[in-house]
Amino acid sequence: MIAFVVLKIYPFKIGSVIEYFWQYTMEMVLILPAVMLIMGLFSVYVSNNMIEKYLGKYAGIKGIFLSFFLGSLPTGPLYVAFPIASHLLEKGARVSNVIIFLSAWACLKIPQELMEFQFLGWKFMFLRLFFTVILVIIMAKIIEYFFGITDDRL
User: Fold this and answer.
1) Is the pTM of this model over 0.85?
2) 101 within 8 A of 81, measured Cβ to Cβ
3) Closest by CA position to 60, among listed 31, 29, 100
4) What is residue 85's DSSP assignment?
5) 3-state DSSP assignment of residue 121
6) Residue 95 to residue 79: CA distance in whole angstroms
7) What distance in Å separates the CA atoms of residue 118 and residue 116, rounded to the nearest whole number?
8) Side-chain-facing half-sphere of 131: CA atoms under 13 Å
9) Spatial CB neighbours of 58, under 8 Å, sequence gap ≥ 6
10) Which long-range contacts (CB under 8 A, 24 or more apart) does 124-133 make?
């Protein structure tokens, strides 16, 4: 719908709109089947007990570290993380750990940190990393508290 509005306002941009639409469609066609396959394997081979043990209500600091680690490994687009996050919630992961996982996926990727180090220096990288980690943890806990989300939620 946005593309149609843009084309209505700027009809001379039709080439760019079609190009970006095609690129995005091809990205989705290539990535989503793999994501669905991974989600199916995840559903079958990763037990609820394992998720509850490592990312659930009683995971504590271990769950926080694991959420950051799992979220910082992939380099794919953020929309790939949403089905994974949904499955984590269904399998008993704590809401704050899922928020940390999504936040790490969005802003703490290991290749990104290496590029940051190369171009902006180690001080900038470590300060941004430190404050991002602290603020993500605080945000996750506030969201859990603010919305009254407990682990008996689903």
Assistant:
1) no
2) yes
3) 100
4) H
5) coil
6) 18
7) 5
8) 5
9) 52
10) 132/103, 132/107, 132/108, 133/68, 133/108
Q: Which long-range contacts (CB under 8 A, 24 or more apart) does 140-148 make?
A: 140/95, 140/96, 140/97, 140/99, 140/100, 140/103, 141/96, 143/95, 143/96, 143/99, 144/94, 144/95, 144/96, 144/99
Residue that is written with structure tokens 């001080």 in the block: 123
Which pLDDT band, with edges at 50, 70 and 90, does 150 fall under?
A: low
Q: What pLDDT score does 16 carry? A: 82
Residue pLDDT, tens place only, 79-108 = 888 988 999 999 999 999 999 999 999 998
The answer to whether 139 and 131 have CB atoms below 8 angstroms apart is no
Residues 6+ apart with CB under 8 A from 149: 95, 143
**What's the pLDDT score for residue 28?**
82
